[in-house]
Hints:
Shape: globular
Structural class: alpha/beta
CATH topology of the largest domain: Spore Coat Polysaccharide Biosynthesis Protein SpsA, Chain A
Number of helices: 12
CATH class of the largest domain: Alpha Beta
Largest sheet: 6 strands, antiparallel
Distance between the termini: 41 Å
Strand order of the largest sheet: 18-19-20-27-22-25
Amino acid sequence: MTITPVLLCGGSGTRLWPLSRKSYPKQFVPLMGQESLFQGSARRLTGPHYNPPVVVTSDAFRFIVTEQLSAVDIPPAAILIEPEARDTAPAILAAALFIAESDPEGLMLVAPSDHVIPDAETFNAAVAAGLDAARSGKIVTFGIAPDRPETGFGYLELDTVPETGVPKALSLQGFVEKPDAARAAQMLAEGRYLWNAGIFLFSVATILDAFRAAQPEMIEAVRASLDGAKRDLVFTRLEAAPWAKAKAISIDYAVMEKARNLAVVPYSGRWSDLGDWAAVWRETEAQGMALSGSATAIDCTNTLLRSEVEGQEVVGIGLDDIVAIAMPDAVLIARKDRAQEVKQAVAALKSRNARQAESFPKDHRPWGWFESLVIGDRFQVKRIVVKPGGALSLQSHVHRAEHWIVVQGTARVTVDAEVKMVTENQSVYVPLGAIHRLENPGKVPVVMIEVQTGSYLGEDDIVRYEDVYSRT
Length: 472
């Protein structure tokens, strides 16, 4: 029997600001190498025992999901689009109801898409250890063997201290909320407690029975939302009105803490939810230091320095227990032991309407991305990258004109009735109100510099006439 992975990737990841933001959260960022956390999660759950994954995400991330899965050659079974975030319980229920339409007795493995599990073999051995329990009607969760008295995680309480060696499914006594430091130290010493990783294995029938018992109203709302779903390109858009009636609640509170058929498989391999910059430091440090990009440390200890801008040098001198993250539009400097408070900084920025609170410097679109280089009174300069085969929508603007200068590749440009090829060092003027489009028919990215001039330069000044990506 194969397993259908369900990848949850709708979170905003504000505790890793400024690298992770609402418009481009941490699961899509290459935090630990060349691949993103989402790609690593998808790759970990592939192989002969896994079906193609079902992904649950938001409208804003749908093209990022398809692009990143394509980059690692993993075709999804489905991409379900949530009309709005309702926490993990409705998302998991939607996936279960979707899978039940074709495989009502199948197994599903639910996993967040922003965790780091370097040893896929050890993790999949733990999954294999939970298969018999899942087939017999158990809800199997996976607990991480703690190596420190952590106050940022919930815990799973076992009846006895788990044995080391070959993993196996054990009885789960209960869930424990995030403890204070003294209680966390006590639980670590007792050895009967594991970190709650939020990863679950169960049959479709078992989890639907659990929802019927604990959340019957949610079953009704989510089923109606799935029944009313619309197909949009490769996406399945859940219907908004019934979805809004589903309670916004986590799977732990909605189902797990009420269930009596729980089991846990201890996992002793490396794992991190990369919940804050201190966690990133723990995963990347060597001899106390973690450096990324153009970062230099002089006489520093226990410090994380990251430069996320090509050509920008970050230098630390005499630092201890410090996190310093440099982005093109924001810099974070904090004590490592206060890394959890980054969420407060994001809230403060939001209160001042600072765009850096939620918007990533690069604005990712289905055709590529762009970034603002200079913004002034009545003008803006952007760098725009259009991937091979990508095409901007056929559009016009009410308030601005545009000048395009191609610096790499060859573009097909439409301006009103004229269509022409524009190559490196050539430019195009798009008058205010002109109907225009840029396409990349070649095999290399098109890079261009765009100069906008006008009374209003916002991204909402777009009238779309045609769009290959079905955006409205």
